[in-house]
């Protein structure tokens, strides 16, 4: 889309870029919330791929969405994007994940303030850089993003807000209740039982538990629960992951455990809103886990232990009391998910279920 050239001199125009995977984009929402809460509140545009654009349009901290055609767009696509960036008359560019293509476009578009992490040779296109050393994984990814947002506000001499708090995706009143009513109608779920959503897919980007491990986890959670507190299990799936979810449902049925697969949704934004109905969301370190985190739903994440993918680095951005994280123990292979103690994980998950509220989280 082409931005309007009209300007409000009291509202700086910012362009924020996070044009990679879904989980990475969701972990940018705290930074977007920080920018939007500054005084005066800036006009915030984002550059995202078509895949995450529907979610960007749901974000309350975003005023305008531009589509990034990607590396393969060709000369015509790059020229069209450059035209849009120039028409946007942006005061500042904040690139949360720096690439030479985006740095070059920001420079060619004449954006006067261009800020990015001081990594890789792409930093030559930026006139403000922040050293972070993310490869050390010393902080959560969303904290690194917040640092960049705060640095940009400082450069623009905007009054910074108080640190934002979850939920970073606050929903309008009644949204969670409507999503729960929808699933009751579709699946016949009991409103009085805890609803545990489980996402067995990985999107091809993260090491995850196997279907057999997830089946054992479900059985172990149920074994740790008191009589009468059996949850409703809902299996979620992204595009191309439906067959895996169905296989897990069949394995659970063989163990006399009932699970339901969430019906197909109308798009990634519709799917994301459905996750607000969960009392607990279980998954590997995938995009859906981070959607649930942004909604401040309780989460249980399963992570590898390699340095670039630790539970700390890819921590969900929900409240600390709503987070559980599991990974291989020290001394195990960094991708050896079979070494995770599933019974211990199930015990902790079960502890979170009985008193979980069913009311929605509101800002």
TrEMBL record:
Its GO CC terms are: cytosol
Q: GO:BP terms for this protein?
A: lipopolysaccharide core region biosynthetic process
Instruction: Name the Gene Ontology molecular function terms of this record.
Output: ADP-heptose-lipopolysaccharide heptosyltransferase activity
What Pfam families is this protein classified in? Answer: Glyco_transf_9
Q: Which InterPro entries match?
A: Glyco_trans_9, LPS_LOS_Heptosyltrfase
Q: Keyword set for this entry?
A: Glycosyltransferase, Transferase
Listed SUPFAM superfamilies: UDP-Glycosyltransferase/glycogen phosphorylase
Q: What is this protein called?
A: Glycosyl transferase
Q: Which species? A: Halomonas aestuarii
